[in-house]
Amino acid sequence: MFDYQDVIGHEDVLLHMRNAVKRNKVSHAYLFAGEEGSGKTLLSQVFAKVLLCAEEQEEPCNGCSSCILFNAGNHPDLVHVRATNKTSMGVEDVRVQVQEELHLLPYQSRYKIYLLHGADQMTIQAQNALLKTLEEPPEYAMFFLLAENPGNFLPTILSRCVLLHVKPVPHALVDHYIRTVLKKPDYQARLLTAFSRGNIGRAIQLSSSQAFLEARESVMGLMEVFIKGNEYDIIEAAGGLDQYKGDFHTVMELFQTWLRDLLVVKEVGDSAYLVHQDQYQVLQRQGMHLSYGRIGKLLENLDLLQQQIRFNVNLTLALEMMFLNAMHV
Predict the structure, then answer these.
(1) Which of 265, 269, 276, 281 has its CA 20 to 30 A from that of 35?
(2) Closest by alpha carbon to 9, among 177, 147, 162?
(3) What's the pLDDT band for 329 if we cut at 50, 70, 90?
(4) What is the spatial distance between Cα 213 and Cα 100, in angstroms, rounded to a whole number?
(5) How far is CA 57 from CA 49, 97, 273, 305, in A?
(6) The DNA polymerase III delta subunit C-terminal domain covers which part of the protein (predicted)?
């Protein structure tokens, strides 16, 4: 419904939006900056709905024709601007989707809001074209720029926008959302919360990702091979993880949380503190065959690997070295 209560967390951004409306100090340009899945699109649409509502109050009424059209996804005064090129938003996108129809008055609301998706993909030429519009916009025109990397913008663009940082959501809120909205059992909620990194969108994506579960199986399999101590099998199992190199951060987190759970099992023996609660018996069995020293060495090697990966080190080769170096501890 695109209402304030639909937003999980982000109290600072919501407070800014509410105060801007309450004090009638709404800017003509906002930059919502946050990673993919962080909630920046929802926040921008909630704000747009409030501003387009015919009642002109702090909350959308959900009863006027404007709110009804907005909820249906076809409000004429909300213009979605997207790149026609997969890699960048060019000057032609800005010219055709913004400037050529900017002179048209709002159809039914007091504002006409342009929502620029992936605005940080704009070329320098496109930014300069948009800059002219931001410098002298019509009174009714507003611009919401959605971006993952605000550093990609020209300083002149940034200086004309109110920057709203969309930060990670506290884990407790993510966990509650997964349990109550996604209806996941406790052990899955704990796992998804740990890997969401405070990102509701990521939690939703992982909750139905077969690739995520398969990657975890591969990590568990490599740990089993490591315990058996066959170097050839370690090399082969490490090679199986190469298919996940596009999301190596998740692979690294899987190893890190698995090793952390092994330490918890050995030290406490209670599944309540585990990230991978559903694999308690596997962790118990592996923990019996791994010393604190070997687990510690793997964690040390993992930390080194995470530093090396920034320099495009081969993931398979790095994993091989990570495990082979810890075999004789």
Answers:
(1) 276
(2) 177
(3) low
(4) 48
(5) 11, 29, 46, 53
(6) 212-325
Measured CA to CA, the distance from residue 116 to residue 88 in angstroms comes to 12
Q: What are phi and psi of 116, to 5 degrees?
A: -95, 105
Which CATH architecture is the domain 209-328 placed in?
Up-down Bundle (1.20)
Q: Is 210 exposed, middle or buried (0-12, 13-18, 19+ CB in 10 A)?
A: exposed
- Amino acid 296: pLDDT: 92
User: Domains of the chain: which residue ranges?
Assistant: 4-165, 209-328
Q: How far apart are CA 268 and CA 140, in angstroms?
A: 62
How many residues are given for the chain?
329
User: How many C-beta neighbours within 10 Å does residue 107 have?
Assistant: 11
Is a pLDDT exceeding 80 seen at residue 138? yes
User: Angle at the Cα of 251 (from 275 to 214), degrees rounded to 5?
Assistant: 80
327/297 Cα distance (integer angstroms): 9
Taking all residues of the chain, what is their mean pLDDT, rounded to a whole number? Answer: 91
Per-residue pLDDT reduced to its tens digit, 296-328: 999 998 888 877 766 666 777 778 888 887 777
Q: Which residue has better confidence, 306 or 32?
A: 32
pLDDT above 80: residue 274: yes
Residue given tokens 């109110």 in the structure block: 162
Per residue in 246-272, pLDDT tens? 777 888 899 999 999 999 999 988 888
Residue 313 Cα to chain centre, angstroms: 25
Q: Output the pLDDT for position 303.
A: 87
At 174 the three-state DSSP class reads helix
Q: For the domain bounded by 4-165, which CATH number is listed? A: 3.40.50.300
Within 8 A by CB and 6+ apart from 219, the residues are 241, 251, 254, 255, 258
